Task: inverse folding
């Protein structure tokens, strides 16, 4: 039986880098990682050429425009990457009979809920980034009903730029910092998400595609202040962390106040085990300490 070829876009992003780490331990598949410089996913001809040349069996789309505040002014670019390009990849996966896994976001919700969001909760994004990601979901299913979409939240990693690394830098530079304490959610360690995606691929190739939307984040519910406090404690910093309301920290893009995702479906469907957020944070900090 020939080895399956898996295309991973967004190779330089947090999740793309974590996929590379996990791919280095796997011999069952042949991974092809591409950066945005190597492949413009909004160029359907370029993507089609890559599909035909490499006999792609699955595509994991880790590429995204993630600058939430900039998306308010760079809306066209956000939609090109987060929507149009997703539609292209979905179309080609259908044409080449390849599995399509696309990563989306909690920002498709408005954050007004008080219980964890299930996959079928009504969507209502409050900023341009969330709207562009929702459009990507819609185009994926429109162009390829067999798509698998994973919504995630508060992603961080030992790679790239993220909240954890920003906090470590600020705690090193300052005696005190202010962190928002009235936005609830759950962090997602990109390494855990990468492991879950690999499990979905394994099961899909053995069994069959189980299309639809799935939520993934680590276990637990915290606010940003609690997240920062845990980073401080686990890293041994002496920086003072002060809680502040979101109104004291205005940003160009509105943020959802409540971003907790119900992950029951992905756990039951694919037998995915999800670690507690603090355990994963410790793992990430240990890697950063090295």
Result:
């Amino acid at each position: 039986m020939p080895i399956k070829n898996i295309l991973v876009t967004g190779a330089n992003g947090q999740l793309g880098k974590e996929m590379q780490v996990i791919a280095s331990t796997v011999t069952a598949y042949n991974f092809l990682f591409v950066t945005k410089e190597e492949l413009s996913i909004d160029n359907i001809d370029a993507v089609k050429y890559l599909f035909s040349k490499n006999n792609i069996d699955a595509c994991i789309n880790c590429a995204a425009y993630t600058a939430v505040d900039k998306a308010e002014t760079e809306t066209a670019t956000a939609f090109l990457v987060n929507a149009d390009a997703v539609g292209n990849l979905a179309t080609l996966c259908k044409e080449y009979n390849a599995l399509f896994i696309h990563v989306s976001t909690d920002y498709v919700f408005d954050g007004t809920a008080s219980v964890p969001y299930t996959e079928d909760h009504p969507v209502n994004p409050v900023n341009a980034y969330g709207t562009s990601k929702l459009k990507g979901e819609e185009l994926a299913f429109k162009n390829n009903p067999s798509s698998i979409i994973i919504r995630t939240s508060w992603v961080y990693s030992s790679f790239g730029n993220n909240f954890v690394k920003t906090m470590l830098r600020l705690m090193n530079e300052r005696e005190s910092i202010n962190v928002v304490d009235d936005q609830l959610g759950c962090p997602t360690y990109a390494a855990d998400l990468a492991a879950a995606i690999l499990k979905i691929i394994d099961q899909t190739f053995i069994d069959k595609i189980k299309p639809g939307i799935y939520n993934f984040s680590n276990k637990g519910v915290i606010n940003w202040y609690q997240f920062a406090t845990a980073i401080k404690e686990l890293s041994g910093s002496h920086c003072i962390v002060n809680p502040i309301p979101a109104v004291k920290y205005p940003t160009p893009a509105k943020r959802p106040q409540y971003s907790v995702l119900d992950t029951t479906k992905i756990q039951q469907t694919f037998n995915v085990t999800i670690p507690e957020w603090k355990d994963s944070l410790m793992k990430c900090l240990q890697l950063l300490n090295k």
